[in-house]
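During the second year of the project, the team shifted from modelling isolated chains to modelling whole assemblies. The rationale, set out in the original proposal, was that interfaces cannot be judged from single-chain predictions alone. As a representative example for this report, we include one of the complexes processed in the last quarter. Its constituent sequences, exactly as entered into the pipeline, are reproduced here:
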Amino acid sequence: MRVQALAREFLGPAIVLGLLVVLSSALLLMVGVEPLEVGQALAEGSVGNRQNIGETLLRMIPVAIVALSLIPSLMIGVFNIGAPGQMSLGALCAYLSSLMSTNAPPWVMLSIAVIAAAIGGAIPALFCAILRARWQINEILSTLIVNALLRLFLDFLLSGPMRGFLSNIPQSDALAANSWLPILMEGTRAHVGLLLVFLFAGGLLYLRSSMLGYRLRLFGASPGLSRRAGVSQTKMVIWTMVLAGAGAGLAGWVQMAGVDHRLYTTVADPVGQTGLFAALLGGLHPVGVALASLLFAALLRGGDFLQIGVGVSPELINTIIGLIILGMAGRSVLKFRRDV
Amino acid sequence: MWEGLIEATVRLTVPLLLVSMGELISEKAGVINIGLEGMMSAGAFTGYIVMVTTGNPYLAAVAAMVAGVAVSLIVVAFSVYGGADQILVGFAIYVLVPGLTAFLYAQGFGENGITPLLPMIDFPILNDLPFVGALMFRGNAFYWAAIAIFVLQWMVLQKSRFGLLVTSAGHNPSVAASLGVPIRPVRAASVMICGALAALGGAALTVGALGSFSSVATGGRGFIAIGIVILGRWRSGGIALAALLIGFADAVRLRLGSQLDVPVQIMAMLPWLVMLAMLILGARLTTSPAALGRRY
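Output from the structure prediction step:
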């Protein structure tokens, strides 16, 4: 009996995975690329050796931070796609805070940057949250608009007033060394941002079993019932979105202070968007979401590697991610059929 | 200067209007189509490839619409008949299809090159009117197609039996079903029409306006179209006005941006700011289809 239940649980993902491999192989054959070679390159690039594992972890950190911090808002059915914009502003605020001092001890600078990044990410989220809570303005649209605006604003700053010395592309000067995130794994670029991921995952695991987590679930399942139970919709929407925004701001900071050590226009690409999909794929469970982030990070790293190794353009990865999300939607089709 | 501004407004409005009309009928039937961008991208790419290969814009438009319908069948299978979450399926298409077209384009699928500008078709006599002549009675084949489809859609939604079925499927599907409305077929048809129109809008962009394709050709226009449907309050006329407004803001950015002493990035914010302002100002008046996004 248990074996059967287990088999049923794994049947869906197995079918999805099989279809995924078949479809992407067909696509590769269509453009004249050997699928096996691509598979090998993806594996080699993502987990092939210590350095590549480090690169995968490096990409997982911001994706996981965005994804985990989105969980509470997604639990109550708020689709905030504003992570790219919130990351940009978080990174900008953290960068500006780093200009305060170039010789203060690192732990002081890092603490200031954490606060600056969280506030920077929370502000645009708060704006959209108020629009949603007060006037029922669709948050998918408002966050999308704010994303575009913040991207342009950052591009404006980096092309003009903040452009780095002798730089001919829109990017800032390098960050002072006392604001860099320390490396966690010797010989790789994986930095201490990884600890933030564990912190977030742990906090959310605790939240699941707490009263607040119960309220969130109740609200997500039945807004009417929870309103009668005295849960304020306005507060729920605003606080969960602000939390997601602060998380995204931190993700922008780790990307800026941990990877490139300077601010550039596309700091949120492709992390901001991928975070949402990782949260959904992980089924809004902290552990699942962390694993989904790891999967997407491996795909992203593998995609970067593909271009150099096999000469296949990394856009392939978006196709694969799209198929994964579709497969996940398809699993709920199976469930829906059982319900009826 | 005005001539140029009007010409750019029309050119930028046509794709937006086509895509928004597609989203309108889908949302009227109760299916929110976040994957609009993907359908648009499919049309933009297919239309472009066919145009380069054959040089025939009509063939390109038809091929684009076929591609759009093909993508919409995913929504039909998963969301309409399968009961999967509409938002999730929409996001999947939003990532999948633009990723696919960008991949195929980068891998050098089909021939590439700049396609020629389409000839302008004048409406006799009226095109000589000052001001409105250039705005309303002059445009390429996509412009006239958009006008024709606009009138047709308005009549179908307002006056026809099918329009009533669509509205009932989006407003109260259970009651409608008890009165004998085939909800799923009606929703499926609406989503397929949406796919065709969104793809035609994509082709209007690459074949009709740009003459080229790039991975960022659609550039968020699918989402803008969803905004336009909200701004237009789910009415044909409102949507046309909203599309024209966003098209105008985009044209101002394009035409005046180079002449004024304002950084390009600040000018590029204009269409987005207009949309944000409209969303906020119109928030209280919103009347969305009651069963929008609900599975049936």
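The first strand of chain B starts at residue 121 and ends at 122. The radius of gyration of chain B is 19 Å.
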